[in-house]
């Protein structure tokens, strides 16, 4: 029986793209971005790069962690 030794989870913050762009466009994006300490929304590419890092060998000793990719939004 093979047991899973590594497990990570990525929790994305409020981001650009998808339905959010269809519903509100630039106005909603700027208003939501203003509430984030980074002053903008997370991009799909930033989330993808985080997932790629966690899936790669450089994150070999990271396990059992939920990494929030939200630009510090949780600090507010």
UniProtKB/TrEMBL annotation:
It holds the Pfam family adh_short_C2. It comes from the Bacteria. Residues 1-22 are annotated as: Disordered. Residues 13-22 have a biased composition (Basic and acidic residues). Residues 1-12 have a biased composition (Basic residues). This is SDR family oxidoreductase. It comes from Mycobacterium colombiense. The lineage of its organism: Bacteria, Bacillati, Actinomycetota, Actinomycetes, Mycobacteriales.
